[in-house]
């Protein structure tokens, strides 16, 4: 049977069954818990058959387990038994890692996800390194505080786009990728892209979720 991909975001949860085209979604939010996520997913996929689940969560994950509560969601993600809740084998990774794996075309790739926060991951020759670049200091706050979708809504596109270009340039200079993939909901707001970058597609998060079960990606964090 196919894999069920679950992409958890700060405003919505999206689900897709491997081999199908129909995506389903429902709202998340700042009080959204892991238990609510599982219940929402199972309700959304009623009638679908699957025997494995991949879940991308916007928080650091180590060894398949969240090690901190998501900044933009509720509590209860750390220590939660995802596999028992879904009732089938389940892999949990950082959401940026899942989309990065789905976007990877070889070499050294930096993935940056512009959404409720700033997701990030580096893949070098097939080896995945989860990152938390969004929380590094930048100007008077952090990178995330200047390039999130909330800033876009408050400051307007012109100022936000200029900042995104600056942030991408700084991070690319530090990490020296062969190319940068810019994903997340904010990617579509960029009429032009920074040098050496390409626009990501949020559906690639599901591709990453399906790839997690392939031998070459086994053990991805």
Concise description?
With 221 residues, the chain is α/β, with parallel strands linked by helices. Helices cover 29% and strands 28% of the residues.
User: The CATH topology of the largest domain, please?
Assistant: Nucleotidyltransferase, domain 5
Rounded to the nearest angstrom, the radius of gyration is 17 Å
Large-scale geometry? globular
CATH superfamily of the largest domain: ATPase, nucleotide binding domain
Number of strands: 14
The first-level CATH class of the largest domain is given as Alpha Beta
**H/E order of the elements?**
EEEHEEEHEHEEEEEHHHEEH
What portion of residues is helical? 25-40%
Tell me what portion of residues adopts beta-strand conformation: 25-35%
Features:
221 residues; alpha/beta; Nucleotidyltransferase, domain 5; 2 domains; 5-stranded mixed β-sheet; 14 strands
Report on this model:
It contains seven helices and 14 strands. Helices cover 29% and strands 28% of the residues. The chain is globular, with a radius of gyration of 17 Å. The longest helix has 19 residues, at 157-175. Helix 3 (95-103) packs across helix 7 and helix 5 (149-155) packs antiparallel against helix 6 (157-175). The protein is an alpha/beta fold. It folds into two domains: 3-97 and 204-212, 2-Layer Sandwich (Nucleotidyltransferase, domain 5), CATH 3.30.420; 106-200, ATPase, nucleotide binding domain (Nucleotidyltransferase, domain 5, 2-Layer Sandwich). The chain starts with a strand and ends in a 10-residue tail after the last helix. The protein has helices at 34-44, 82-86, 95-103, 144-147, 149-155, 157-175, 204-211; strands at residues 3-8, 12-17, 24-27, 52-57, 61-62, 65-66, 90-94, 108-114, 118-124, 127-131, 137-138, 141-142, 179-183, 197-199. The strands form four sheets. The chain has a five-stranded mixed beta sheet, with helices on both faces. A five-stranded mixed beta sheet has the order 10-9-8-13-14, sandwiched between helices. Strands 5-6 form a two-stranded antiparallel sheet.
């Amino acid at each position: 049977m196919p894999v069920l991909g679950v992409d958890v975001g700060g405003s919505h949860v999206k689900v897709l069954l491997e081999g199908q085209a129909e995506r389903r979604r429902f709202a998340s939010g700042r009080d959204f818990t892991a238990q609510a996520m599982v219940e929402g997913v199972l309700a959304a996929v009623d009638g679908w058959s699957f025997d494995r689940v991949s879940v991308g969560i916007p928080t650091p994950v180590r060894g398949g387990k969240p090690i901190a509560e998501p900044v933009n969601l509720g509590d209860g993600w750390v220590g939660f038994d995802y596999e028992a809740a879904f009732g089938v084998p389940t892999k949990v990774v950082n959401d940026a890692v899942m989309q990065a794996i789905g976007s990877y075309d070889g070499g050294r790739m930096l993935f940056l996800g512009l959404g409720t926060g700033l997701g990030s991951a580096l893949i070098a020759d097939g080896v995945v390194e989860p990152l938390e670049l969004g929380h590094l200091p930048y100007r008077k706050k952090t990178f995330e505080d200047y390039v999130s979708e909330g800033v876009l809504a408050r400051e307007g596109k012109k100022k936000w786009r200029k900042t995104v270009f600056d942030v991408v340039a700084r991070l690319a200079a530090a990490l020296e990728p062969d190319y940068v993939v810019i994903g997340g909901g904010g990617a579509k707001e960029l009429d032009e892209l920074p040098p050496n970058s390409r626009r990501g597609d949020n559906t690639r998060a599901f591709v990453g979720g399906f790839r997690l079960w392939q031998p070459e990606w086994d053990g991805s964090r």
